[in-house]
Specification:
Blueprint (H helix, E strand, L loop, with lengths): L10 H7 L9 E4 L6 H9 L5 E6 L2 H9 L5 E5 L5 H7 L5 E7 L4 H5 L25 H7 L2 H12 L4 H14 L5 H11 L11 H11 L2 H15 E11 L2 H14 L20 E3 L8 H6 L7 E7 L2
Parallel strand pairs: 1-2, 1-4, 2-3, 4-5
Antiparallel strand pairs: 5-7, 6-7
Helix pairs in contact: 1-2, 7-8, 7-10, 8-9, 11-12
The structure holds S-adenosylmethionine.
């Protein structure tokens, strides 16, 4: 497979959820452009005066978006926690649909220079946007053992977090951990058992990546902005790949679908302010064929909501 390719997950259900057919000249936002799998299908369905805003924090992804010659497409190098400001700067709101396809792309994972992977050795970085923030090596150099343990336990749901954090701190006393291969080898010494076929470093790498990129904070900041930029009956579609992400999406949608009850004001049911959104359908997961063709899809969940007012 082309190392720069990314097979989109839940492509049809996610783009169907945006209901582009009912407003083909609307404005849609792909907040995680990646390699543009979802964006290309959105453009196929969009009418001649429709508009697609493609956002990604990764400069490599933005370069791919810029190379797509389509005058309906505008790309932005931004974090999706800057969604509202990005649309304001482009004079692009309100939106008819916003899509998030969370996590990392295959080209990010597969390029050893980006430092996400343990399969091929590379510099230990893991930033989706290498122009900002602190990479994994620098964080591991500075963090104390309790912080490393907490990240690996909470974001990796790793049973051996304590042993791994101890091993990392012992290893860095001998010299800084600067390569993905070094980190994977240190983790392997501390992990006693692993599910068949899973590399001992899988959970630790995932946890450090989530921390370095502040993935859960980004999502929590972005969802209310997505709701704010949507017009009435606009659609929000979110594909998550991790139970912690899915919980944030689920709780956000459920809270928005309940009437907002002002505190300490006694109200009758018919006087309650209406909910902000409506949950559309049940959460969708990829079927066995999609998972077989694209193992990355196995933990994906799509949730959809519609803005009510
Ligand atoms: C799973 S990929 C998206 C793939 C895309 N849907 C496709 O079909 O090609 C996730 C993308 O979102 C980007 N991303 C993740 N978190 C982000 C954030 N907080 N702000 C902006 N982009 C983000 C990543 O850089 C990556 O390119």
């Amino acid at each position: 497979m082309n190392p720069d390719a990314h097979v989109p997950v839940l492509l049809l259900p996610a783009v169907d959820a945006l209901a582009i057919g009912s407003r083909p000249d609307g404005t849609f936002v792909d907040a995680t452009f990646g390699r543009g799998g979802h964006s290309r299908l959105i453009l196929e369905r969009l009418g001649p005066s429709g508009r697609l805003i493609a956002i990604d924090r990764d400069p490599d992804a933005v370069a791919v978006a810029r190379a797509l010659e389509d005058r309906r497409l505008t790309s932005a190098h931004a974090r999706f926690s800057e969604l509202q400001a990005t649309l304001d700067a482009l004079r692009a709101g309100p939106a008819d649909g916003v899509l998030f396809d969370l996590g990392v792309s295959s080209p990010q994972l597969g390029d050893p220079r980006r430092g996400f992977g343990f399969q091929i050795d590379g510099p230990l970085d893991m930033r989706m946007d290498p122009t900002q923030g602190v990479g994994a090596a620098e964080w591991l150099e500075r963090a104390d053992e309790a912080e490393i343990r907490g990240v690996i336990r909470d974001y990796g749901e790793e049973r051996f977090a304590k042993q791994i954090a101890k091993a990392i701190v012992a290893a860095r006393r001998r010299g800084p951990l600067t390569r993905t291969g070094e980190l994977a080898a240190v983790v392997a010494t501390a992990v006693r058992t692993r599910e068949p076929g899973q590399n001992p470093a899988t959970r630790t790498f995932q946890a450090i990546r989530i921390h370095v990129n502040q993935e859960l904070e980004e999502l929590s900041l972005a969802l209310p902005q997505a709701l704010a930029v949507l017009r009435r009956s606009g659609r929000l579609a979110v594909i998550s790949f991790h139970s912690l992400e899915d919980r944030i999406v689920k709780n956000f949608m459920r809270a928005g679908a309940r009437p907002t009850m002002p505190e300490r004001v006694p109200l009758r049911a018919r006087e309650m302010p209406p909910p902000k959104l409506r949950i559309v359908g049940l959460p969708q997961k990829p079927g066995p064929d999609e998972i077989k063709a694209n193992p990355r899809a196995r933990s994906a969940v799509l949730r959809v909501a519609e803005k009510l007012s």
